[in-house]
């Protein structure tokens, strides 16, 4: 469901918003102190249990890792299909019980199929640990795998496949995997195909489950604010009586000789993408650790690959790997404007690789890379789910602990890294892949939508006994985070949350801004160009010297309208000094301005032709009146009109302390944090009165349908949206959020998921949102569907919205939505980053920092009648604008 295509998705997404304003380093090194509190046990039936106690938040994250995946498939996609079927119910729980139970905890659940493992994970308030364990136990022996259920799920998983294959980057990635690992199990990426899912039948699924889903083939990782011994005792009580089984032999891996290949594909992306794929050492190889360090060196902002971006030859560069036990594949590539060929992008990357092979990698960059890898041991502590994920991956796939991983990385030498580079990065056997944008034939067309009214009922079986108590006494949970709020004399807001979970400090800052309001007429894009210039050094240090200073303390910094710092607590003061130097004293060199401006023009030249850009423009034009700030957009022409003086003027006007909030979280006291922030940011002054950057109210939009053709797409992407004259300060705002939770909160348990996916198989995923603003808001529903199902799905959406306006919600469905919201309160703050983002959002809109708890109290008091009234007052189902990005001719 998630994760299986993260690498390909990252490659596709990372360069669609260029030019980049990157984080200047990946992560600081970790001190030896404060090791993770680990308790391990192996049950008599072979189930390995690992409990990681983390008191960051009252949350628990459980990851059941079965040691099987696409490597063991008789039919491609069957491991992925079985993953999906474990959410379709078991002998002890129906699918609705499974989904409803998870939803009312406020938790999340999902799964991931890889080549060597399939993992299933929950995250929920730690008070519901027993619920998570019981849910996992329900499918540990009694999966149904019936033909009826598979016929239902087949439609949904096919939607996932067609969605993935709509990306040219994904298609090239899969073809590269197939070629580099030809003749081995690794060649099958494991997603499955439309024909393979038609071939798979229920007996095939049951056979796969029977072969591999056993306790002696599983590792259960549980992280969070739990008692380790009590948790292991609970696991033993629930899973201890499941018998072990003899496991089949695993498919052998015999690597074949490599041959060169060049792949091409057309895309609907606004950039050209080229990458080179090299076969590199796998987890079991002694050179695996050196290969990972090599990736880090290649990604260094002091390195030659990044210089392609800094010099303007590329919009972005990358080195990323997918790794298996016997071998891996590293992709080294470049995103360039549509005016540059993919062949040129690839040749520039090859030149970097060959120069490094000739001269050797800079030893100082190898040392920095090793330090930054070690950093993950501390920074993983700052997210409960991140900690569980790290341990699951290293134990279940690499068959070692994170500590052993760190030891291996620390032992790497410069000679090791150079040997791997010269041995494995062979251009004569490399796979080259190039994705070239191609605008679809035809143009967008519009018209009014026709709708009918056919409401599909959804039914719930009762909750299981172990979950019924959740709904018995719903209440807003006690606040566990107590931010210390201060204001500097210059108007900057400072929010500090002390935490000693790790010896690190995270700083996040945001300047309230709105380019549509603040950019001068005809200069659209000046905000983006300004952001891109922060990577080119300060008035104190040039680009390389600044990065060198960061490397000395192994800190990471990003600057711009949003900015941040990640550092060890011992280096906090120096880190803040460097952050402030970049944020308050950017160099804005003329030569770099010319580079960033040209990158922006190049990026926009592709963007304005892309379907996603056209969809965004069509939506804004349909929702907002002429002259509204939301309809403004940068074009190659407006970016070309921007001068360096425009950048400096925009910076002086938009970058103001009285529009800025800084959040500091970590191993620091409020007093220390204020001293450091005031020392470095206190002299920052604002000129003139504080501007109002919030756009005014707008009239209600009229309905409209716009279809935009997209080359390379297999599936249609749909956005249904409308403006609503509501603000986030209106008493009905939390009630509409509650109704939105009914619509798509809790995955299968939600109204739209049930109707559009589970009952009809029209979509793979569907989401909805109420976007609150100070003077106006929007309501949206988004989904992906095969072209023939787009209109059918839209009709069901309108039916469900109309039903919520005309009929009071069933009390049990409303109660479940309330429980979900209440459970989400602690889960949303399970990481430093999540907490910082929430605090910045509330502070920037002048709302209380516990706004989520205030809204939850109002939602808890809501009745079916108040929800119906709010929906009837604000939502106009037949006035939605529908934007469809579809395959050409569909």
Give a quick set of tags describing it.
890 residues; alpha+beta; six-stranded mixed sheet; 33 helices; disordered N terminus
The shape, in one word, is globular
Strand content: 15-25%
Q: Point out poorly predicted stretches.
A: 1-33, 440-445, 447-458
| Beta strand count | 23
Number of helices: 33
Helix content, binned percent: 40-55%
Q: Output the radius of gyration.
A: 27 Å
Quaternary form: single chain
Summarize the structure.
This protein is α+β, with helices and mostly antiparallel strands and 890 residues long.
Give an account of the 3D structure.
The protein is α+β, with helices and mostly antiparallel strands. Helices cover 41% and strands 18% of the residues. The protein has 33 helices and 23 strands. The protein has a 6-stranded mixed sheet with strand order 1-2-6-3-5-4, with helices on both faces. The protein has a 6-stranded mixed sheet with strand order 12-19-23-20-22-21, with helices on both faces. It has a 6-stranded mixed sheet with strand order 13-14-18-15-17-16, sandwiched between helices. α10 (288-299) crosses α17 and α21 (572-584) runs parallel beside α26. The protein is globular, with a radius of gyration of 27 Å. Mean pLDDT is 91; it is low at 1-33, 440-445 and 447-458.
Task: Give the helices and strands, then pairings.
Blueprint: H1 6-13, E1 37-42, E2 48-53, E3 59-66, H2 78-85, H3 95-104, E4 108-113, E5 118-125, H4 129-138, H5 147-164, H6 168-180, H7 194-199, H8 202-212, E6 218-224, H9 228-239, E7 261-267, E8 272-281, H10 288-299, H11 304-310, E9 316-323, E10 327-336, H12 342-359, H13 363-374, H14 376-379, H15 384-398, H16 402-410, H17 414-424, E11 431-437, E12 445-447, E13 484-487, E14 493-498, E15 504-511, H18 515-518, H19 526-533, H20 543-553, E16 556-558, E17 562-568, H21 572-584, H22 590-607, H23 611-623, H24 636-640, H25 644-654, E18 660-666, H26 670-681, E19 704-709, E20 716-724, H27 733-744, H28 751-758, E21 763-771, E22 777-785, H29 790-806, H30 811-827, H31 832-844, H32 851-861, H33 864-874, E23 881-886
Parallel strand pairs: 2-6, 7-11, 14-18, 19-23
Antiparallel strand pairs: 1-2, 3-5, 3-6, 4-5, 8-10, 8-11, 9-10, 12-19, 13-14, 15-17, 15-18, 16-17, 20-22, 20-23, 21-22
Helix pairs in contact: 1-6, 2-8, 3-30, 4-9, 10-13, 10-17, 19-22, 19-25, 21-26, 27-30, 27-32, 27-33, 28-29, 29-33, 30-32
């Amino acid at each position: 469901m998630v994760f299986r295509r993260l690498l390909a998705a990252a490659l596709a997404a990372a360069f669609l918003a260029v030019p980049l304003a990157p984080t200047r380093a990946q992560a600081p090194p970790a001190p030896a102190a404060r090791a993770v509190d680990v308790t391990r046990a192996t049950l008599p039936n072979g189930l390995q249990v690992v409990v990681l106690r983390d008191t960051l938040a009252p949350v628990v994250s459980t990851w059941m890792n079965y040691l099987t995946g696409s490597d063991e498939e008789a039919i491609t996609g069957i491991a992925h299909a079985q993953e999906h079927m474990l959410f379709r119910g078991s002998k002890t729980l129906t699918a609705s019980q499974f989904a409803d139970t998870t939803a009312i905890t406020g938790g999340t659940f999902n799964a991931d199929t890889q080549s060597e493992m399939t993992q299933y994970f929950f995250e929920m308030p730690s008070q519901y640990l027993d619920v998570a364990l019981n849910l996992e136990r329900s499918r540990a022996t009694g999966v149904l795998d019936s033909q009826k259920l598979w016929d239902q799920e087949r439609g949904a998983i096919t939607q996932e496949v067609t969605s993935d294959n709509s990306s040219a980057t994904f298609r090239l990635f899969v073809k590269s995997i197939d070629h580099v690992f030809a003749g081995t199990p690794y060649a099958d990426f494991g997603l499955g195909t439309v024909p393979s899912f038609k071939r798979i039948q229920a007996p095939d699924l049951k056979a796969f489950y029977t072969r591999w889903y056993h306790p002696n083939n599983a590792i259960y990782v549980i992280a969070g604010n739990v008692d380790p011994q009590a948790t292991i005792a609970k696991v033993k009580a629930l899973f201890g009586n499941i018998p072990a089984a003899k496991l089949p032999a695993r498919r052998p891996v015999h690597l074949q000789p490599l041959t060169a290949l060049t792949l091409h594909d057309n895309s609907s992306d606004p950039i050209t993408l080229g990458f080179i794929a090299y076969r590199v050492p796998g987890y079991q190889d002694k050179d695996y650790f050196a290969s990972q360090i090599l990736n880090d060196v290649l990604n260094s902002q002091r390195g030659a690959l990044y210089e392609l971006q800094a010099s303007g030859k590329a919009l972005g560069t990358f080195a990323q790997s997918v790794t298996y036990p016997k071998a891996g594949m590293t992709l080294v590539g470049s995103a360039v404007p549509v005016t540059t060929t993919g062949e040129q992008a690839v040749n520039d990357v090859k030149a970097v690789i060959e120069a490094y092979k000739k001269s050797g990698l800079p030893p100082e960059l190898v040392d920095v890379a090793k330090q930054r890898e070690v950093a993950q041991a501390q920074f993983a502590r700052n997210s409960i789910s991140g900690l569980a994920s790290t341990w699951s991956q290293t134990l279940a796939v690499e068959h070692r602990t994170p500590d052993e991983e760190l030891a291996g990385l620390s032992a790497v030498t410069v000679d090791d890294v150079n040997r791997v580079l010269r041995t494995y990065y062979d251009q004569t056997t490399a796979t080259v892949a190039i994705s070239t944008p191609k605008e679809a034939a035809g143009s967008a067309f519009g018209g009014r939508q026709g709708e009918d009214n056919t409401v599909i009922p959804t039914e719930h079986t009762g909750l299981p006994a172990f979950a019924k108590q959740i709904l018995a006494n719903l209440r807003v949970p006690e606040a566990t985070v107590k931010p210390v709020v201060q204001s500097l004399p210059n108007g900057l807001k400072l929010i500090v949350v002390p935490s000693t979970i790790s010896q690190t400090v995270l700083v996040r800052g945001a300047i309230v801004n709105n380019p549509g309001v603040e950019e001068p007429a005809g200069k659209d894009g000046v905000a983006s160009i300004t952001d891109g210039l922060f990577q080119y050094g300060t008035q104190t240090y040039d680009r390389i010297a600044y990065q060198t200073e960061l490397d000395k303390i192994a800190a990471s910094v990003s600057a711009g309208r949003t900015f941040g710092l990640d550092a060890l607590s011992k280096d906090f003061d120096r880190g803040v000094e460097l952050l402030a130097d970049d944020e308050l004293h950017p160099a804005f060199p003329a030569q770099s301005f010319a580079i960033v401006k040209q990158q922006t023009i190049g990026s926009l030249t592709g963007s304005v032709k892309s379907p996603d850009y056209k969809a965004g423009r069509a939506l804004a034009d349909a929702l907002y009146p002429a002259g509204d700030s939301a309809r403004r957009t940068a074009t190659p022409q407006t970016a070309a009109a921007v001068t360096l003086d425009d950048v400096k003027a925009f910076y002086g006007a938009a970058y103001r302390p009285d529009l800025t909030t800084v959040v500091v979280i970590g191993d620091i006291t409020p007093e220390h944090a204020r001293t450091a922030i005031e020392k470095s940011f206190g002299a920052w002054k604002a000129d003139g009165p504080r501007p109002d950057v919030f756009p005014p109210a707008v009239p209600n939009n009229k309905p409209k349908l716009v279809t935009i053709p997209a080359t390379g797409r297999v599936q249609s992407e749909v956005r249904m949206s409308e403006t609503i004259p509501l603000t986030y300060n209106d008493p009905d705002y939390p009630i509409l959020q509650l109704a939105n939770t009914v619509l798509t909160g809790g995955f299968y348990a939600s109204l739209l998921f049930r109707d559009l996916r589970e009952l009809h198989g029209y979509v793979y995923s569907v989401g909805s949102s109420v976007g609150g603003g100070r003077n106006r808001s929007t309501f949206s529903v988004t989904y992906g569907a095969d072209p023939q199902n787009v209109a059918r799905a839209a009709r069901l959406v309108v039916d469900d919205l109309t039903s919520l306006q005309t009929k009071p919600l069933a009390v049990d469905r409303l109660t479940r939505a309330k429980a979900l919201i209440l459970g989400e309160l602690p889960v949303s703050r399970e990481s430093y980053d999540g907490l910082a983002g929430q605090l910045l959002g509330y502070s920037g809109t002048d709302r209380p920092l516990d706004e989520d708890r205030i809204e939850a109290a109002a939602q808890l008091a809501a009745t079916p009648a108040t929800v119906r009234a709010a929906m009837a007052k604000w939502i106009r189902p037949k006035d939605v604008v529908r934007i469809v990005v579809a395959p050409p001719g569909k």
